[in-house]
Design brief:
Layout: E1 3-7, H1 10-17, E2 24-28, E3 34-36, E4 42-44, H2 67-91, H3 96-116, H4 121-126, H5 130-148, H6 159-170, E5 190-191, E6 208-210, E7 220-222, E8 226-228, H7 238-251, E9 255-256, H8 264-268, E10 273-277, H9 293-300, E11 305-311, E12 323-324, H10 331-337, E13 345-346, H11 357-371, E14 375-379, H12 384-397, E15 403-407, H13 418-423, H14 428-441, E16 449-453, H15 459-467, E17 472-475, H16 477-483, H17 505-508, H18 513-538, E18 551-552
Parallel strand pairs: 8-17, 9-10, 10-11, 11-14, 14-15, 15-16, 16-17
Antiparallel strand pairs: 1-2, 3-4, 5-18, 6-7, 12-13
Helix pairs in contact: 2-3, 6-16, 6-18, 7-18, 11-12, 12-14, 15-18
The chain binds flavin mononucleotide.
Length: 558
Amino acid sequence: MSRCGVWRSTRESKTNHNSYAGEISLAPCRGFASCRGSLGRVIPFFVSGSAPVRTRPLIETRLSVNLERVAKAGNIGIVTMLFGAALLGYFVSFYFHFLTVALLLLNLVNFYWRRVQKTHSLLANFGFLAQGRYLMESIGPEFRQYWFSSDTEEKPFSRLERSEVYRKAKGIDSSAAFGSQQSFDRSEIKLRHSFFPAPHDTIEPFRVTFGEERGVDTAFTITRPILISAMSFGALGQNAVRAFARGARKAEIPMNTGEGGYPKYHLMEGADLIFQMGTAKFGVRHEDGRLDEQKLAELAAKPEIKMVEIKLSQGAKPGKGGLLPSEKITAEIAELRGVPMGRDVVSPPYHAECTDPASTAAFIRRVQEIAGLPVGIKFCLGRDAELRALVSEMKRQNVFPDWMTVDGGEGGTGAAPKSFMDSIGLPLFSALPLVLDVLEEEGVKDRVKLLASGKLVNAGRQITAMSMGASACYTARGFMLALGCIQALQCNQNTCPVGITTHHGHLQNGLDVEAKSERVKNYVLGLHHDHIEMMSALGKTSATQLDRKNLYLPASGS
Ligand SMILES: Cc1cc2nc3c(=O)[nH]c(=O)nc-3n(C[C@H](O)[C@H](O)[C@H](O)COP(=O)(O)O)c2cc1C
């Protein structure tokens, strides 16, 4: 067998082969002795016997940029140019002195970066050219999003998922061609259709009533299986809140206020509201963070407030309270929440009143009595044993929330520690069946409704959640996308480029409340259309017929 070799660059040789520039790396080749050079050119040489005979390529074709040298040249260059400009200014034209001043400033800043500051090693080693790297890094996400990421790979929502929502929100055809771009690798949950689809006109109108189990006379009925999930004024700017609320009114769905306190902008639009009480109880708190019963009673008496949701935890940051970064705290938000300006507002990880199952059940009863409305709880599931303990305590005290919202660990947020978003809390489709099991095994499924949230932005995931026991679905980011969210991932910085999660007037100007409220409505109508189509395909005439038998769950193989 003959052998062949290629010239390798110093770096390649050192790192890969423990040899040095100029040495020949040997790799077995069959028959004709030629190999591909590092630029893709074929560099032939012939070898016989065991001693390799090497032929040098006639022309060295490797081009490479030595950034260290370029930076050195740049740093010397700007000093040279400074003197050049000064001379030109002196001898040729006074106007060159403008250039001299600019170069002088650049040199001073460069000197600071290289010799004074100690924070950035790159700047210290390479000077002003290192800024090029920072610049490219800062616009990397945009380039990846626009050009380089495929339609299915972006997170948390791929371009395909986003465009489906955009198209629905604009009221244009969201059908696709040629075939699904999802991977079919037996890890996906699928809906099982029927040989005998239900005719559309046999599908019953959707209707779910909260509070009917307790027989409260303020029981509230929803007529679409979709609700706008909690997003506070604070996380959202006022235009976004108003567009959501107006859109919710037009689409005849309720909107959750989020934990941001007094729902000033929500109330302006006359939508049906679910007032959310977070762990800091903004809007209904005493100074020490405990519940102010009078404030809650006053709020609950408003005709727009239809239900109250006690947030125990949230999928994006379970075990941690809400976080509103100081950048986003305006004087108005500080007033509505009752917090100081200039500091991050961190809510406690749990309600002061809820320290164990017994006190939690008692607190739910208290809120139900004060509000006189249907009252639910929201949580992300951690330990199902703890949920079981809570449910048995509810049985013991004979107090049940009117619904439980199960928020998946994949849920969104205005701001949260990345480690919490990535690592804590069960994903929705793992949690929902566990919660349903607990309720069924404890024999209380008929006492509590389930709502679900966690990337339920399309009808497929929504029907899946409903087949796992949810009576209806919340989505937050689905509605943000409907409003035009481009997934810039800046919700925590007050710089949202489309004006949704910002309080800057100039950025909110682009968000026209009336136009965007139409998008919210269109999105809901688009989903409604898909729900009917999918129910029909599943052979179901009512959402109450959806159950786990509709699902193919690959993990269980059933
Ligand atoms: C900008 C933003 C703000 C949010 N604010 C709240 C909040 O105030 N209270 C809460 O319980 N959940 C909040 N959430 C979580 C959502 O209500 C929802 O549970 C979660 O995002 C999952 O739904 P999604 O995947 O459809 O977005 C927020 C989410 C986002 C994106």
